[in-house]
Amino acid sequence: MRCPNCGNEVGPDAACRACGAVLRAGAAAAGDVLATTSASSTLRYQLVGGNAFACARVELAAGQSILAEAGAMVSMSGNVDLQSRMQGGVMGALRRMVTRESVFVSTFTAMGGPAEVLLAPPVPGDVIGLELAGRTLLVQSSSWLASDPETRIDTEFAGFRGLFAGEGLFFIRLSGRGTALLSSYGAIVRRPIPAGGRYVVDTGHVVAFDAAMPYQVRKASRRGWLRSIVSGEALVAEFAGPGEVWLQTRNLQALAGALFPLFPTQHQGGSDLGRLFGD
Predict the structure, then answer these.
(1) CB-based burial of residue 139 (10 Å sphere; 0-12 exposed, 13-18 middle, 19+ buried)?
(2) Residue 43 near residue 66 (C-beta atoms within 8 A)
(3) Which of 97, 214, 225, 247 has its CA 20 to 30 A from that of 140?
C-alpha cells in the first residue's frame, strides 16, 4: 500500500510513519486498495487495481464535483452529471493543445446524493493522490488525471528547456489547496531533494516537481555529447533542492524505440504481412 500524502510504501498501520497521514481503517488489509484518502484531503478516493493498472475510485458527496482529463472515465454512478467544457476559455484551450492534452476537461457532479466515479489513465501505470496544501507543482503534459475544483489548473511556459526535455513548450501548472490525481507510465517514485542538494533525472521519466525548484536540462555526461549519446541517456534534467520530484519508472519513448524494429517494414507494394497473406 502507498501513502496518498507522500507516496511512501506503508505497512498495515493506522498512519504513515513517514509523514503521519492517517489511513482509512482496514484499507491496508484490502487486497485491491493501494492507497486511500489522507486526513487532510479535500477529496475522498481510493486507488485500486494494482500498480500496473491503477485506477482512482473517487467518492463524491451530493453536489460535489471533480475535474478530470477527457476520456479518463471508466464508470460512474447513475446519478452523476457529466459536462465537458474548454478549461480556461479559448486561450486555455490553445495552451492545452500545445501540451498535447485534450482541449476539453470533464466535470463530474453527484446529483441528489452520494456517487462514485472511476478514473484511469490511457496507459498501464500508477496513480497517486497529492495534497497541494498551497504549493505549486509543474506536471508533465500527460500525467494530470483529475483534481477537485479547489485546485487551480493552468499552463506554465517551459521555454526550450521543456522542448529539449521532450515535454513540449508548456507544463501543466497545479496550485491551490486541493487534491490532484497524477498518473504515469510505470510506477511513480517520490524523491525529496534537500536544500543544497542536486538530483539528476532522465527527461523521459519526470512526472512532476515543485515549481519553485530550479532545474536545467543538460547533456547526461559532462565529458561531452558523444559520451552522453552512446550512454543511451543524451539529455537529463538536473534539479536543485529543496523540493520534491516524482518520477515514473518507465518511458513511453523508450518503449516505442524498443518496439519499432519489430514492426513490418513498409514498402510501396504493401507490408510484409500483407504480401505474406496475399494482400
Answers:
(1) buried
(2) yes
(3) 225
CB 67 within 8 A of CB 149: yes
Tally Cβ neighbours within 10 Å of residue 147.
26
> Model confidence at 216, in pLDDT bands (50, 70, 90)?
confident
Kind plus residue range of the DSSP H or E element containing 252: helix 252-259
Q: Name the grid cell of 5.
A: 500524502
pLDDT in tens, 139-171: 988 899 999 999 998 887 766 555 444 555 578
pTM of structure: 0.74
Q: Rounded to whole angstroms, how far apart are CA atoms 66 and 68?
A: 7
From the CB of residue 154, how many other CB atoms can be counted at a distance below 10 Å? 16
- CA angle 127/220/156 to nearest 5° reads 50
Per the CB < 8 A criterion, the answer to whether 107 and 84 are in contact is yes
* Measured distance CA(97)–CA(217) in Å, rounded: 23
CA distances from 17 to 2, 22, 28, 54, 237 (A): 11, 10, 14, 23, 30
Name residue 30's amino acid. A
Q: How far apart are CA 105 and CA 172, in angstroms?
A: 13
